[in-house]
Amino acid sequence: MERVYNFSPGPSALPLPVLEKVKEALPVYMDAGMSVMEMSHRSPMYQAIIDDTEARMRSLMHIPDTYAVLFLHGGATMQFASVPLNLGIKGEADYIDSGNFAHGAAGEAAKYLKVNTVASSREDTYTYIPDWKGKLNPDADYLHITTNNTIYGTHYVELPEGNAPLVADMSSNILGEAYDINKFGVIYAGAQKNIGPAGLCVLIVRKDLLGHASPLCPKVLNWTTQAENGSMLNTPNTFGIYVAGLCMQWLQEQGGVEGIEKVNKEKAAMLYDFLDNSKVFTATAKKEFRSIMNVTFVTGDKEKDAAFVKFAASQGLVNLKGHRSVGGMRASIYNAMPIEGVKKLVETLKAFEANA
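-> structure tokens emitted (356 positions)
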């Protein structure tokens, strides 16, 4: 069977060259005589793998030595609790509610400290990034944002600035858009969209923010303890880290984050241009906040939406059904989605519209 164009929001498509490398090395990695999946995480060979992955991450995101890079369990969701447990010194934090995951992060943090929801677009179905200006608490322990909203297809076009360290859940656009790392205190991201396979979380934390964890913080959630142990307090997701390193190598070959961002913008512009001129389909996110990673759209008719998803699948375009909370369609066009896949999607949209 031929590979389909997979528009899944996560776990998402991986670059084909990466999958081919994994396939080749799966039974025996280099001269180890075994698979990476079988290799001791304490071995010199595996240490070289995780060191290489970290070095590539630092190079791609221009991460200085003043930041620690951690490879953790639990995906981004585990960090919803880890953030307040590591940073809640004074016991109060600001959150901007721009989507389901941002909302969930605030709800989890509220178990451990006082959460100030300084801005929200929840009542408008998260179709835009809410205005936070003039609403930030200068004495907050931190300000939390979600840079890209997978479900609703929006992203920040301007980062909030304040006295508190900026903490970002960057799960669905990390390595797909370039950021100045120095503007953040903490960045965390589930791997299953642009980094690698599911089951891994990458966390980048400014080192001066370490050492302040609550006494109640479990050691596996304690960033300081994890940093002191090189992400190996316990057995990490060894295979996930290995594949992430291969994905980062592939990304470097595409011109790095800056290079792939240009491609991602081209893909998004191609799709939005069609939607903006369509008589059947409508993009749902407000234009100024549209994500270049997740494009959400509807026909306005649930049966017609379902018919399109079925038609697209027959053309080799899968996982286009929107999130259950909003319906419609969603095309997740992360780094590994080639331009050809988006061109095929536009052609399929046009064909469906011609017969609608």
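The mean pLDDT is 97.
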